[in-house]
Structures are given as structure tokens and as C-alpha cells.
């Protein structure tokens, strides 16, 4: 009786370990990485957008990962300029709303980009090489805008987070002979 009862105790432990392994593997399957390991090779993951804005001279030539919201896109024949409002990144490299942000980054992409994919307010994450400070751009209010430039190597655009609302409470009333799919005037 000893071996049988001992075997029964091991089965739940093995089952729990198996279920834990499946659950943890399932999480990574549901949330794949933003960039592949090949894309992240030689990327300075210890650098955030604040460091790029303040220490750009020391970081010139380094590959970094930054993200934020698109402010504007200027398409040219052979390249595109994207002005980015930088934001901190979460553990999945998704831009998250900061308490406040200072400055902009100027992303330079080889070739034009689709402006419908990069509209104002669209969140993106990029891997790029820090280049230089662009000459200050004069603003309407008399100030100057200093832009650190990055050559974009890889870009990921994010879909907006969707809020799922519950259906209306109670029955939905439609007029006789009408409804959302019937032209006004009665029966189709």
C-alpha cells in the first residue's frame, strides 16, 4: 500500500507543475514581444527617452528604443520626418501616459510613410540610432524647439485600446417597418 499512496501524492504535484508551465507559456503566447530578439540586438535597453533628450551627445551612434505619440508627419520624396511626443514604455514596450513630458524627438524614416497609419496622437514604438540635435526650430510664440534626431530602424504602431461596453439594459425599440438596416420608408 505504501507505493500506491506515494504515487497518488506525486500526481497532484506533477499536475500543478504542468498547469503552471502551460499557464505561463500561454501568457507569452497571448502577448508576443513587440520586437524580435534580432531587432533588439545591440539596443541600449537601459536608456529611456529622458536620457536621449538630455544626454544625446554621449548617446550619438547608439541604438535605443523609444516610444510615444505622433505629433506630426512631414513626408518628403525620399524620407519622412515624424515629430514624436516621447512617453515612458511599459514592460511590453507600449507607450504609457506620463505625468508630464518635456521636448520632442524627430524620427527620420527612409522613404515616405502612410499618413493614415501615423496620424496625430497615434502611439508608436521605434528602435533607432541617436544622431544629433537638429538646429532649433522657431515657434510662433517666439521660443525655439530643440529636436534630437533618431534614424528609425524598426517601427511598431499600436492599435488604440478598445473599451468594450455592455449592451443597453431593456429591450431595444425600433419604429414599425424601420430599423438600422432598412431604408426609411418601410419594407426594403
From TrEMBL:
<dbReference type="InterPro" id="IPR004658">
    <property type="entry name" value="OMP_Slp"/>
</dbReference>
<protein>
    <recommendedName>
        <fullName>Outer membrane lipoprotein</fullName>
    </recommendedName>
</protein>
<dbReference type="GO" id="GO:0019867">
    <property type="term" value="C:outer membrane"/>
</dbReference>
<dbReference type="Pfam" id="PF03843">
    <property type="entry name" value="Slp"/>
</dbReference>
Amino acid at each position: 500500500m505504501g507505493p500506491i499512496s506515494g504515487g497518488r501524492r506525486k500526481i497532484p504535484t506533477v499536475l500543478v507543475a504542468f498547469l503552471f508551465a502551460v499557464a505561463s507559456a500561454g501568457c507569452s503566447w497571448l502577448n508576443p514581444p513587440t520586437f524580435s530578439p534580432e531587432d533588439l540586438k545591440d539596443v541600449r535597453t537601459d536608456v529611456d527617452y529622458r536620457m536621449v533628450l538630455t544626454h544625446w551627445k554621449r548617446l550619438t551612434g547608439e541604438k535605443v528604443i523609444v516610444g510615444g505619440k505622433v505629433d506630426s508627419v512631414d513626408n518628403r520624396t525620399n524620407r519622412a520626418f515624424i515629430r514624436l511626443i516621447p512617453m515612458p514604455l511599459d514592460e511590453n514596450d507600449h507607450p504609457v501616459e506620463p505625468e508630464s513630458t518635456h521636448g520632442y524627438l524627430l524620427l527620420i524614416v527612409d522613404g515616405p510613410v502612410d499618413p493614415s497609419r501615423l496620424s496625430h496622437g497615434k502611439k508608436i514604438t521605434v528602435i533607432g540610432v541617436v544622431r544629433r540635435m537638429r538646429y532649433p526650430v522657431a515657434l510662433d510664440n517666439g521660443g525655439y524647439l530643440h529636436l534630437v534626431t533618431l534614424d528609425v530602424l524598426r517601427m511598431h504602431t499600436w492599435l488604440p485600446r478598445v473599451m468594450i461596453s455592455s449592451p443597453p439594459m431593456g429591450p431595444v425599440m425600433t419604429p414599425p417597418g424601420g430599423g438600422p438596416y432598412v431604408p426609411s420608408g418601410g419594407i426594403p
